[in-house]
Amino acid sequence: MIPKFRYVSNLELASRYRGIPGCVVECGVWRGGMSAGLAELMGHERDYFLFDSFEGLPPASEELDGNLAAAWQRPENLLNFRNCTASMNDADEAMRMSGARRYKLVKGWFKDTLPGFTPPNKIAILRLDGDWYESTMVCLDHLFPHLADNALVIVDDYYAWEGCTRAVNEFVSRSRNQGVVLRLKQFDNDVCYFERRTFPEWTPEVELSRDLQEARSGAR
Fold it and tell me: How far apart are CA 79 and CA 84, in angstroms?
């Protein structure tokens, strides 16, 4: 349940992180197409973990997720794909078709399955498609400590649902995320993501020092 152009953008962004060792985790996989695409792209030697209730989305909170989310989830809305319900067999079939050999489908609500999850190695790519505030925050709280240095985190619903936006903004605004400052970015004018960087991509002090040196030289 992702437009073709966004599916391609997700894969194009992920391709830039193929050099980072580690597993790939997706939370909210629907029928498994995105994870399957990542498996073909990132290689079959990695471990892949697909988390989903396979029973649809949990109830949205009007306070945290907004009125539009609650309205979208109503049973009479024929455009919500039965509340994003998909078969676990569909996801399994997608992964088998991808050629992935080391994958695991984890059925259940994130709040129940993620607290006890420890990946076999660091997470190189984490893709979040949980829609609502609580689902997104649970994923960030429990999986962020397992991210590799320079790991990629893709947030599918950042521009779609108020609750997801709120959860991500709150998480990256915390005074400390294991000593890492997080900067939200956008890829292809569409995909929201951030990286777990131990050090920033550039150091303002270095740039400032260089500017001062040039200014002093010009004044002589």
Answer: 10
Number of domains making up the chain: 1
* Domain carrying residue 212: 4-219
Q: What predicted TM-score, i.e. pTM, was given to this entire model? A: 0.88
Which residue bears the tokens 């129940």? 112
pLDDT at 73: 80
What CATH number corresponds to the domain at position 188? 3.40.50.150
